[in-house]
Specification:
By secondary structure, the chain is mainly beta. The chain contains one helix and 18 strands. The protein has two domains: 108 residues, Head decoration protein D (Virus Head Decoration Protein, Chain: A, Beta Barrel), CATH 2.40.300.10; 90 residues, no CATH class. The mean pLDDT is 93. Pfam families: HDPD.
Length: 220
């Protein structure tokens, strides 16, 4: 008779195990979400942020003097759908404004621009730009996807927006469907929440819980 062995059993976190009080039993507070590929192994109680994924296209506004061109345009979570305006101050410097008219950043031809969720490079052409040359950059939203809350990020992941209700999802190399609490009224047990790798301090957690409270997700 051989030596008996006892296999090690790992119990997955229970769906919604962090929930203390939810008067709607999830009917109001939960929604189907998509966990973005690269989010890793996600378990119930993980604090999430929402990132906008989308596309963008540039077109001249009117007739420009300069004939420079846009490279590939990337759209991050801080971007919003609508028409951004890129207007030149002189031959090489430009200003980028959001759909609401607010300034999001200044750029220079030949240098990568990155602000407000947009990334692109304008390459100067044979004819230089002049003041008032301008482009319309139209951002079209394609999906809102969720990632672990990351206070060090600048792409929208720094804004806590939900808590993963599903017990276990592996979003290491592919998008995964899941369910998350995205609004209140509800109460959760703070000690049962899971934090992403870049949440390393208590003040970061406290600030995130305060943001979730604004959504009606209160913690005790």
């Amino acid at each position: 008779m051989g030596t008996p062995t006892n296999p090690v059993l790992t119990e997955l976190r229970r769906e919604g195990g962090y929930v203390v009080w939810d008067p709607s039993d999830g009917m109001l507070t939960r929604e189907a979400v998509i966990l973005l590929s690269g989010s890793g192994l996600c378990t119930a109680g993980l604090v999430l942020a929402a990132i906008l994924t989308g596309t963008a296209a540039a077109a001249a506004l009117g007739t420009n003097t300069g004939n420079g061109t846009f490279g590939a345009i990337t759209v991050g979570g801080a971007a919003v759908p609508g028409d951004y305006i890129v207007e030149f101050d002189d031959a090489t410097h430009f200003l980028v404004s959001a759909p609401g008219g607010q300034e999001i950043g200044h750029g220079t031809t030949g240098v990568a621009f990155s602000a407000g969720g947009l990334g692109f490079t304008i390459t100067a052409g044979g004819t230089a730009f002049v003041a008032a040359d301008s482009f319309k950059l139209t951002v079209t939203a394609t999906a809102m996807k969720y990632v672990p809350f990351d206070p060090t990020a600048t792409n929208g992941a720094q804004n806590p927006a939900a808590i993963l209700w599903s017990s276990y999802r592996d979003a290491t190399s592919a998008d995964r469907r899941a369910v998350a609490n995205v609004r209140g009224p509800m109460k959760v047990q703070a000690a049962e929440l899971i934090w992403g790798a870049n949440v390393t301090t208590t003040p970061q957690q406290t600030a995130a819980l305060a943001q979730l409270a604004k959504l009606g997700i209160l913690s005790i």
